[in-house]
Amino acid sequence: MILINHNLYKKNFGWGQFNMLVWNENCIIGIDLIDAQHKHLFEICNQAYTLLKSDLKIDKYNDITLIIEDLRNYTKFHFKSEEDYMLSINYPGYEDQKKEHNDFVKELDSINLTNIDKDHQNQLEDLFGFIFTWILDHILKEDKLIMSS
């Protein structure tokens, strides 16, 4: 799978095109545990969006690092749950999913906190764009395939 390029979104559509993630029936993959975890990922993404749109807060560094840490911890937990489920049903796309999960975690781990400290708003835009597009793309395309197998 090709990840949606969030910088391309930023260039072509601007950040005004992004809104908070709204959970609806299109996001449901049909596995209650995983759907509940996906809802929580939406909540984390929406925390980043709220911070991004907040003009009242000048220094966002601590909030950004907390969101990143929450996202790192929760995605590792969620990916393990999802991967365990895929293994339990002998899902044929397990290896591809695992690779995508690992790539997402590597991307999160590569976030440079020094850059965030220097340029809160742009770094937050990049973070939000990355998690927004990845989560939507992954759930709506890849995770939906789990139940169809």
- CA radius of gyration is 16 Å
The assigned structural class equals mainly alpha
According to CATH, the fold-level topology is: Four Helix Bundle (Hemerythrin (Met), subunit A)
CATH architectural group: Up-down Bundle
Itemize the secondary structure elements and their pairings.
Blueprint: H1 6-13, H2 32-53, H3 61-88, H4 94-109, H5 113-118, H6 120-148
Helix pairs in contact: 1-6, 2-3, 2-6, 3-4
What can you see in these coordinates?
This protein is an all-alpha fold. The protein has a single domain (34-148), classed as Four Helix Bundle (Hemerythrin (Met), subunit A), CATH 1.20.120. The protein contains 6 helices and no strands. It has helices at residues 6-13, 32-53, 61-88, 94-109, 113-118, 120-148. The longest helix is centred in the last third of the chain and has 29 residues, at 120-148. The two termini are 17 Å apart. The model is unreliable at 1-16 (pLDDT under 50).
